[in-house]
DNA sequence: GATTGAAATGAACGCACGTTCAGATACAAC
DNA sequence: GTTGTATCTGAACGTGCGTTCATTTCAATC
């Protein structure tokens, strides 16, 4: 049975995370004060400490939650089949996910430096797990002769960088639809593996 | 005739910029104090203000200097010829430059948020000028039928992101030589434009 | 309507920050 | 050796930070 909590907490907890995510993504972890986050939520700074032990943990939890969700979402989205189909699936998944969660993606990229060593290691391990999913697809394609890659590891990093870069320029309601963007990136990625 | 300056200034000025670049790149602008920078140079914080009006200007100057040097270096490196040759030249130039100046590249990417509005606009204009150099090459190739691109602008952004991503994983003395890395990225880029 | 306890406040803490500046220092010129 | 000046120090400034905690608020329960 779930522990009973007050009616405020049910709202305030997630609201704090939302506000922190938005502000951290916009201005950077170090540039955002606990007072700003609190003000965004409509609360005073002290109240935040009912929901997080400290600012560092708030950042870490946001990044960890992002990567956990990413890995779970990928687990649900991944398919069996030919490497080329798996790659198409990965590319479209990655682009859609990164377009839909720009703030979280941005945070997880930019704020690694502000994590403590242990926290950094944990996040980095999860990121590496995700990158490995792509690398496995590329390796499989390479081994069965379907892909021709100059270097599997570098191609993995190059593809990840290329795809993730969508968050730099994508804007909601922009010139291109989500689906069009997915197709463009898939087009580019397919050429990269020469399949 | 050059204005005469004391013997210390000839050394200290650049030393401050070096230290600031290194520390900003490592820990982030907001996380580095003027006292830390001064300590790295072997001086007290107050002395920094003989060389920069404030911390923000120090950051801005580092970023501006990086982009100026990048544009100058590209001006010197760029060639005429077929789009495919121009692209090869651009890719190899970009990779080499970004591998050789990881700190400056990192700074110019990560610290845009910490610039004042006017400073941001100036830096962004210069960055855009550089990106346009690639876009012009892609457009030329597209128009003469040598390249087949799904979308010139998106391909530009995708290629820039892919190439710049080298700074994420490159380490001096790593598994791959600079030249090998240049060739791998050129290989990937060429496929991208289907040339 | 009294009781309860979670939620939030508001004031305070010690600390580190960017920046200033009067005074000390070191060094080149004479 | 004295002077002049570029360089640097050391102390101080006001500010804002993350965090704590005694106190207050207030909705739910009886």
Description:
- The structure is a homodimer of 195-residue chains.
- Chain A is mostly helical.
- In chain A, 73% of the residues lie in helices and 0% in strands.
- The first copy, chain A, has ten helices and no strands.
- In chain A, helix 1 packs across helix 2 and helix 1 packs across helix 6.
- The relative contact order of chain A is 0.12.
- The N terminus of chain A is likely disordered.
- The structure holds a DNA duplex (30 and 30 nucleotides).
Main attributes of the structure:
homodimer, 195 residues, mainly alpha, 10 helices, DNA-binding
Order of helix and strand elements from N to C terminus of chain A: HHHHHHHHHH
What general form of chain A does the structure show?
A: elongated
Radius of gyration of chain A: 19 Å
Strand content of chain A: under 5%
N- to C-terminal distance of chain A: 52 Å
Bin the helical content of chain A.
over 70%
Q: Which structural category do the helix and sheet elements of chain A fall into?
A: mainly alpha
* Tally of separate helices of chain A: 10
Q: How would you classify the quaternary structure?
A: homodimer
Quick one: biggest sheet of chain A?
Answer: none
Strand element count of chain A: 0
Query: Biggest interface between protein chains, with counts per chain?
Result: A-B, 33 and 33 residues
Mean pLDDT of chain A: 94
Q: Could you list the spans of chain A in which at least 5 consecutive residues all have pLDDT below 50?
A: 1-5
